[in-house]
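Please decode residue identities from the backbone states below.
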């Protein structure tokens, strides 16, 4: 990945051009991060990896079989699931989210084994939360292990681009050592396995799910805005499917075949298995600007830090003890945001609510 901070050498230019650069700094940064980063991956067709999960009639495959649209309309949402379970893996897709009024709509891209392990399931989530017209989509990530649903590990963020304009690559990397969430190849969250996490670290084979559904009761400003079906259909587009890792049946993991060990070793060597120094810079850049809730800074909820939390001072200063942004951080970001509807409440003030996937 190209270093998003490379352009800083241009500061040796004249005063005027430096101030122009400073003016457009966030834009330039966003531009370089977004363009430099997405992984070049070998992709599979929909049928090679997935099967419908519900509301078949709302899943539309492209004629070449390499893309699929998930529709939410007044009749149903829809979803698909990987045909196999993966004993660790790398899951990725390019996704284009529905546009215009999408309050109450949730698009989820996540790994889970809740269908097999009802009481002690594991889960890794990327969930996109729709918004009223003219306001940006937000998204959250979460990690559950062995049924740790009473210990949510949510983080919530804005994006540095409009996810309804184009396809962007969203990826989840998961091994016994660490979990990394990526957006266009930019690492946005890393969870390093820590013995003290015990079963909270997801370790049983999971399938990959993609769904679109009506979450009117909570998705937008704590449920203030519902899905409005006069704007149907809501269409989320998926392409460039990637499912890497050892495909197994859920209880087969115990066998740990040679083939599986090889696939796991291959996973550890992939370009996305470790965050490069440039990737760390991009992650810092992202987190200082786009995160707006983190459980690690929510000391009201977790007076004792959960064991994997690493407190980063440059992030910590942004947050109140509720894990939400301080007023100063809010206003600084607000002044950066170009598209605001006057008189509307800022969505980042919305109160946190746990995702009920
Ligand atoms: C979005 O809304 C605008 C204005 O309300 C409309 O012109 C446009 O067709 C809508 N786009 C979609 C994809 O529905
Ligand atoms: C996971 O949960 C099950 C039952 O809830 C328990 O028996 C098991 O010891 C747990 N595993 C770990 C690794 O904590």
């Amino acid at each position: 990945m190209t270093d998003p901070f490379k352009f800083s050498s241009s500061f040796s230019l004249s005063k005027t051009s430096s101030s122009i650069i400073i003016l457009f700094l966030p834009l330039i940064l966003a531009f370089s991060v977004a363009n430099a980063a997405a992984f070049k991956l070998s992709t599979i067709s929909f049928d090679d990896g997935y099967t419908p999960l519900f509301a078949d009639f709302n899943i539309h495959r492209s004629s070449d079989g390499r893309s699929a649209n998930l529709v939410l309309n007044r009749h149903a949402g829809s979803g698909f699931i990987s045909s196999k379970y993966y004993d660790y893996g790398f899951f990725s897709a390019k996704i284009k989210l529905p546009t215009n009024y999408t309050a109450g709509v949730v698009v989820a891209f996540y790994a889970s084994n809740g269908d097999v392990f009802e009481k002690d399931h594991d889960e890794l989530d990327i969930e996109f939360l729709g918004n009223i017209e003219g306001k940006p989509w937000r998204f959250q990530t979460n990690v559950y292990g062995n049924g740790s649903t009473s210990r949510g590990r949510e983080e919530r963020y804005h994006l540095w681009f409009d996810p309804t304009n184009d396809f962007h690559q969203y990826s989840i990397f998961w091994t016994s050592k660490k979990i990394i969430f990526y957006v266009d190849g930019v690492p946005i969250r890393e969870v390093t396995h820590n013995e003290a996490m015990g079963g909270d670290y997801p370790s049983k084979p999971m399938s990959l799910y993609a769904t679109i559904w009506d979450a009117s009761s909570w998705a937008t400003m704590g449920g203030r805005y519902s899905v409005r079906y006069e704007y149907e259909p809501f269409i989320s587009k998926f392409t460039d499917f990637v499912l890497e890792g050892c495909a197994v049946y859920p209880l087969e993991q115990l066998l740990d075949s040679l083939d599986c060990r090889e696939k796991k070793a291959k996973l550890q060597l992939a370009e996305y298995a470790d965050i490069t120094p440039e990737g760390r810079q991009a992650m810092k850049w992202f987190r200082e600007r786009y995160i707006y809730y983190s459980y690690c800074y929510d000391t009201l909820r977790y007076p004792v830090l959960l064991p994997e939390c690493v407190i980063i001072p440059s992030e910590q200063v942004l947050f109140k003890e509720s894990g939400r942004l301080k007023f100063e951080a809010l206003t600084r970001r607000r002044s950066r945001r170009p598209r605001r509807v006057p008189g509307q409440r800022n969505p980042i003030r919305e109160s946190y609510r746990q995702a009920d996937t």
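Observation: The chain is about 20% helix and 30% strand.
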